[in-house]
Amino acid sequence: MEKLPMTVDGFERLKQELSHLKKVERQAVIKAIADARALGDLSENAEYHAAREKQGFIEGRITELESKIARAEVIDISKLTGTTVKFGASVTLYDEDTEQETTYQIMGIDEADISKGLLSISSPLAKALIGKDIGDRVEVRTPNGSKGYEILKVIFK
């Protein structure tokens, strides 16, 4: 079974979402299904079909979250140090094409948000950076061709 690296905060968010789905959302959809059944003919009952569809989504998400939590490899970034890029590192890169600097933090799949500078560990850029040091150059294939980056800074916060 493949481990899923994630931060302590990311792990807690998944557990909270799972708890909310089980204790609140699941109960609400069960009630909605019961209320819709009470209205009679189920074949033309839009409320019933909508509630059943929502129930399927909730149960699917619960299964997905339980799997992710079971496979979680929780990493406390505050205990990491060094100049080598690894999970949790904030990496400042120099883009050789645009001559601009950008900083990304390498995070778990569910924690990634590129608009906030949070890069998924499974992204091509993160995969190219892992194991590299300050001053190293990496080449990343993109749909528009290869892009070159130089690692300027690596910090753990």
UniProtKB/TrEMBL annotation:
It comes from the Bacteria. Coiled coil: none annotated. This is Transcription elongation factor GreA. Necessary for efficient RNA polymerase transcription elongation past template-encoded arresting sites. The arresting sites in DNA have the property of trapping a certain fraction of elongating RNA polymerases that pass through, resulting in locked ternary complexes. Cleavage of the nascent transcript by cleavage factors such as GreA or GreB allows the resumption of elongation from the new 3'terminus. GreA releases sequences of 2 to 3 nucleotides. GO terms for molecular function: DNA binding; RNA polymerase binding; translation elongation factor activity. PANTHER family: TRANSCRIPTION ELONGATION FACTOR GREA. Residues 83-154 form the Transcription elongation factor GreA/GreB C-terminal domain. Keywords: DNA-binding, Elongation factor, Protein biosynthesis, Transcription, Transcription regulation. NCBIfam families: greA (TIGR01462), PRK00226.1-2 (NF001261), PRK00226.1-4 (NF001263), PRK00226.1-5 (NF001264). Belongs to the GreA/GreB family. GO terms for biological process: DNA-templated transcription elongation; regulation of DNA-templated transcription elongation.
